[in-house]
Amino acid sequence: MRTDLLVPAILLAYSASAQSSTSSALGRASPSSSVPDIQRLAETISDDQLQKVRDVMEQLCIYSWENGTKAQALLEYAYQDFSPFSRTFGNALTDTSLSQSVPDEIIAIARTTLENRPSTSNQSGAALGGVGIGSLLQDGSSADPASLGIAVLLANASAAVGTQQVKNVGWGQAAESELRYLLERVPRNAEGAISHRSEQAQLWSDFVYMVPPYLAYYGYLQSNQTLLQEAYTQCSLYRSGLQDPSTKLWRHIVQGTGTSDPGLWATGNAWAAAGMLRVLATMIKSPFSDQMASQRADLQAWSDEIITAAKARTAKDGLVRNYIDNSSTFEDTAGSTLLAAAAYRLATLNLTTAHVGFANQIHSTVAARHINSTGYLTGAVDPLNFGKQGTYSPEGQAFVLLMQAAYKEYIAGGGEDKTSAAVRLVQAGWVGGIGVSLVLALGSYFEIMHSANLLFLCLSSAMMARDTVAVPAPGARSAPDLTLPSSTILGDDTLAKSWLTQPSFLYDSWENGTKAQALIDFAYPDYSPLSATFRLPISDNVPDELIAIARTTMQNRPSSIGPGPLLEDQSAGDPASLGIAVLLASLSSTAKLDRIKDVSWSDAATSQINFLSGGTVPRNETTGAISHRVKYSQAWAYVRHLPPLADSVSMVPPFMAYYALVNEKSEYLQSAYDQCASYRQTLQQNTTKLWRHMEINTIENNIANDEGEIVDQTAKPDISLWATGNAWAASGMLRVYATILQSPYNEEMSKECDNLKLWVQEIIAGATVWTASSGLVHNNMLNSSTFEDTAASTLLAATMYRLAALDITPAYVPYANKIYSTIAEKYINEMGYLTGAVDPLKFNVMGTESPEGQAFVLMMHAAYRDYIATREKSAEDSGFYSEASRYQGPPPIDTGVEGT
Ligand SMILES: *[C@@H]1O[C@H](CO)[C@@H](O)[C@H](O)[C@H]1NC(C)=O
Ligand SMILES: *[C@@H]1O[C@H](CO)[C@@H](O)[C@H](O)[C@H]1NC(C)=O
Ligand SMILES: *[C@@H]1O[C@H](CO)[C@@H](O)[C@H](O)[C@H]1NC(C)=O
Ligand SMILES: *[C@@H]1O[C@H](CO)[C@@H](O)[C@H](O)[C@H]1NC(C)=O
Ligand SMILES: *[C@@H]1O[C@H](CO)[C@@H](O)[C@H](O)[C@H]1NC(C)=O
Ligand SMILES: *[C@@H]1O[C@H](CO)[C@@H](O)[C@H](O)[C@H]1NC(C)=O
Ligand SMILES: *[C@@H]1O[C@H](CO)[C@@H](O)[C@H](O)[C@H]1NC(C)=O
Ligand SMILES: *[C@@H]1O[C@H](CO)[C@@H](O)[C@H](O)[C@H]1NC(C)=O
What we know:
The protein has a domain of 394 residues: Alpha/alpha barrel (Glycosyltransferase), CATH 1.50.10.10. It has 31 helices and twelve strands. Strand 9 and strand 10 form a beta hairpin.
């Protein structure tokens, strides 16, 4: 099991300096370390959950910067008219409708601040009529109290309370006193940077979130360009002082004496990026925007620089580490979350969508794993102890709101112009600057689905992407309602029945192969590379059921030795699906010496491999794709044009990979990968990224024999985006990925692994764009007039669960859950048949039975079970999940299974 899902405990590298830095902070109990809890499996942050996050934020915020960040989070999340990021931002001083609506919550924060304000900040500062020049709050930091300045300015602008005084000081006086304190009193370093600390000049990256946005907001309200310029200048000076030239990331604390933290602290970088973007947003809204074009360009570049550098260093699940370049530090949810907010803001400001993929990944991970059911952000750095993970983080609570606010605005942004902006370009950048863009449906998803066949999506053709996969965040596609129709999971009885259903016809090769695969996934996961318990070599006996499948195959095998398929078949690919069963038989302690029709298991497996890779099966000369069909082998001129078929990816490469593992031949792992690559190259539609079913380049040749007769109707090109074909392809590639991962060659093939992960997700992401309201996909995925196919949907759901169980991404679990419960509720009849499945022999009509569909049900359930097993079980789990927590192992299917 891949327990690194659970971010483990923590290194104390910076604790010494952190301790000293927090000695001034009031004595909050400093928790030792914690493992973030996975209490909930929500993959999106629901409104309900966000309310809890907000309530917790309310309870936790105590310090000046916490209250200031809280105020900012509220403005961005709930009162956008007062947030410069928002389209509806307006000037509360000049717009009476705004001055009348300054929110009470913000006024309350300002009031608390003024109540806590020292009454005589500086006795000698008589210039302000007795209020003095001084900080809003008494604080070791000269910067943190400024974070509350915007709330005070808004109270000042309020029609309701603007004229009030608190402790004999007006809001405007307090704000001006704070401003002058910053500009005139606070120590500066040699370059002119205003210190973060009141007693000496010291630079902290935190400053950039606390002070420049206040200066800018002040400048905006007063139409004072000097202040906007000063906000910019301070950002610039801080960057010069803090930036590490090699990584471009910012150090946390430099200069001065005492506390020092030269590390590239995640939250510090997030403060800086998010702070500079607030300044930039304010500048854009000001009347000086045009005059300050170069300043705007700088602020954009500087925030982008931080995010780009952080993005290049994410950990496996998309989060950044507490010290971004130090892989021995824990993954910090707080800094990551604020970085995600900033990345979304670059998009909502129309500056770049290149980092949306990065943000989405963090968003999904945080939503899925790091907000517990009480509403706490878990796995966050202790804000008072920079080097350590804490049990809670007040500012982290606010970051969740900031991220969600930015995300929502990002999503809503495309909906602005409903008449023309039916689609929006979401560009998800990858490391190395290779991007891919998905145009995601906006506005009414279903309208688009029904009206637009021309969902044009622009994609970069270069697909050598790695690291971060552009996983659209939940909701990014205006997805269908993912409410589960029921909390049903399939019971053991139903599963057993599904398994035992007999089709009215004999199973074909790929059906038997898929059945073997399902059986392995479901009942004998030790032999499935997708499973956490996979192990090879096998020392004990291989289950009889699997040997029986292998034995039947061998009995049906054409009797030649040498390169040849396991079964005589029009398809070159399908018989390979049985190869894994044969390989397992060759390892069995009881059966390995058996020879069937005088052929050993391993000779049969090797002869299948040689058949595929030895030139007998036609290949495309350019891509090297091995044809799925052998039918025209007497006529090379024809066969070389024969098609790759998406199905083949589920039949051939997983077998090759398994063969490589059993025989310790890494070249077959490479072949398995190469086949996936060339099939994708040929079959992938460059717009939707979904795969066509078959590609035939010279149609006439393929369907006609030498005499020109039509000989094979099924060889007509099926260039539709057939749902089952896509499911085969995604599922097959994920098996290859998992097999490589389980092999000793996983390190050297990490690039291949990255690509496979990406390719699987391309299909899965594409599929989720096109689901019907039931959660199922249509048989021809883009054509909503074709029926909803249960078979393909089921295999897609299996793959979605596997993506989560393999710790690749949890983003598709809600889709899988939707499919699962729809299938469980409506499409398994009393006899255990999967209904509503495509006829596997006709592709385009619904059939009455689907042998492969039966196998998909087991695969889906097995994947679901394995996914659940990677999660901590909790008494708080409810509904769908609690059912699963009670799952007690596979149903009793060990005897009497057909095929034995
Ligand atoms: C922050 O807000 C809380 C809640 O209103 C309040 O109790 C606390 O005194 C405030 N902190 C400061 C430094 O003003
Ligand atoms: C108070 O203000 C005067 C000038 O107005 C200044 O010289 C002095 O340093 C200030 N004291 C503090 C503690 O800020
Ligand atoms: C802008 O603000 C600065 C700092 O408070 C002040 O010195 C200057 O006079 C202001 N300029 C205008 C045009 O109001
Ligand atoms: C972004 O661009 C869209 C479309 O051009 C426009 O409607 C919107 O106002 C822009 N947003 C910002 C923040 O500039
Ligand atoms: C959520 O996390 C907080 C802070 O660590 C903790 O106090 C609370 O008990 C957690 N909630 C649950 C349900 O575990
Ligand atoms: C081989 O595949 C490439 C890429 O899909 C295609 O353009 C070409 O026509 C194929 N060649 C043959 C002979 O089918
Ligand atoms: C996608 O394919 C179409 C036609 O097949 C082609 O015109 C277009 O240039 C391709 N686009 C990309 C980005 O490769
Ligand atoms: C598939 O398995 C069934 C049941 O064991 C068997 O009757 C059939 O011959 C097999 N099909 C092939 C092509 O081997």
